[in-house]
Specification:
Length: 439
């Protein structure tokens, strides 16, 4: 077995290569460059050059061949262009998920195979299991604080078959210790942050490479809106019904209704004229609205994401403001005050069946079938319990507890419940069996 290690210059991939070399495998390293531009980045202009230098030092230390490959064209086409398109549509993508399925275990894997590799190893904190039927399962890593299975939720069976995760059974502290004991040049390097292979960015500046800035209103939504909203009150009634009799007690129409988020487009502002000052100069102002107020201005709704707190530049509040919705068509950003604002939470989400990605064949759900899952809506979020049901052409997911900032465009990763585990290891490190993009 000849294994290509994706050596990034970080400690995780370095220890992955170290372990494989110690286990006697035929190993070589390959560093990939996926990004050239520096506009919007918050680090040095040549950060990737430092990464490559350290990666090459690690390869020399381990006495394994080192190769370099430029995949920047594929990365821009398959990841960055997708990211720009999603933000332009008012959605919040996760480019790191696409980087793994489209680059590391596709374009990079293809290049590795051209050099004779049968498998590609990475420094991901996750585990793979081969099943009796020849299929492969993706399991959480041992380290609960570093598990990265979420980022691999779009891999297919062929990609999983070719993948090796040498550090999935280790905690980060052990990885650091092994690197130090082996005197690897990457032992003390900090973990990378930001967008995969781009780095930490000033997102608005980065997106302005393609997306134009257009001034618009920031609308603060008051609690009175929810008291008067027929949609919100109807959702509360449907949610109470679902909690009382179970999700299967709701019709497809009711589930669809419950899964649609509030749009806030019924909050409108009328103007009135008034006279001001000794000279009674005519001025225009907005009439008072019990549902909300125009609290400020922004430079483009596409630059904001649900749950965002920074970048609003609006003062005068006891608690922080959070983005609760965006509307790129009207170029409006809606905000609410405080962590407990009603607009921050949703309980039901809908996914189209034709857009579901089951990681293993033969584990899908039949029409009318319900199943319990543990779900992760973003990296490092604790697993959330939920009940799912197939109705018609959709999968509806009802969370046991309302979820904060359910963001369209993000990936939802579904893990098996402990009682469904076929062996003890799956109960401790659940299997990721399904992923889908939040609508």
């Amino acid at each position: 077995m000849k294994i290509c290690v994706g050596l990034s210059g970080g400690v995780d991939s370095s220890v992955a290569a170290l372990l494989l070399k110690q286990q006697g495998y035929d190993v070589f390293a390959m560093f990939m460059q996926n990004w050239h531009d520096t506009e919007g980045t918050l680090h040095g202009d040549c950060e990737w050059e430092e990464d490559r230098f350290v990666a090459e030092l690690v390869a020399r230390k381990l006495r394994i061949p080192f190769y370099f490959v430029d995949l920047s064209k594929q990365y821009r086409q398959r990841v960055v262009d997708y990211m720009f398109a999603e933000y332009e549509a008012g959605r919040t993508p996760n480019p790191d998920v696409l980087c793994n399925s489209e680059i590391k275990f596709d374009a990079f894997l293809e290049k590795a195979r051209s050099l004779g590799a049968t498998h590609v190893a990475t420094g991901h904190y996750c585990r793979k299991r081969e099943n009796p039927d020849g299929t492969f399962s993706l399991l959480e890593g041992v380290d609960p604080g570093k598990d990265q299975s979420y980022f691999l939720c779009q891999l297919n069976q062929e990609q999983l078959g070719a993948a090796i995760f040498p550090i999935g059974d280790l905690c980060k502290s052990e990885v650091r210790r092994l690197a130090a004991e082996a005197d690897l040049p990457s032992a003390d390097r900090k973990d990378s942050q930001g967008i995969c292979f781009v780095g930490k960015v000033d997102l608005p500046v980065f997106l302005q490479q393609k997306l134009a800035s257009v001034a618009g209103d920031v609308v603060e939504v008051f609690d009175q809106y929810y008291q008067d909203s027929e949609k919100y009150q109807r959702d509360r009634a449907l949610l109470s019904k679902a909690r009382a009799i179970g999700i299967s007690g709701l019709s497809e129409q009711e589930l669809t209704e419950l899964s649609i988020p509030i749009s806030y487009d019924d909050i409108q502002f009328e103007t009135e004229t008034y006279r001001s000052g000794k000279k009674h100069i005519k001025k225009t102002r907005y009439k008072a609205n019990p549902w909300g107020i125009i609290a400020g201005k922004h430079e483009g709704a596409q630059f904001f994401t649900l749950g965002q707190r920074k970048g609003l530049a609006i003062g005068g509040h006891i608690e922080p403001l959070f983005v609760i919705a965006t509307d790129v068509a009207s170029n409006r950003v809606y905000v609410g005050e405080g962590e407990s604002h009603k607009g921050l939470y949703r309980s039901c989400v809908r996914f189209s069946l034709d857009k579901l990605h089951w990681l293993r064949p033969g584990i899908g759900m039949a029409d009318g079938e319900t199943r319990r899952f543990r779900v992760r809506l973003r990296y490092r979020q604790p697993l959330q319990t939920a009940t799912a049901i197939v109705r018609g052409s959709n999968l509806f997911v009802l969370f046991d507890e309302a979820q904060r900032s359910v963001t369209p465009g993000q990936f939802a990763a579904f893990y098996a419940m402990p009682e469904e585990a076929s062996n003890p290891i799956d109960a401790e490190a659940p299997e990721l069996i399904l992923s889908a993009v939040i609508e």
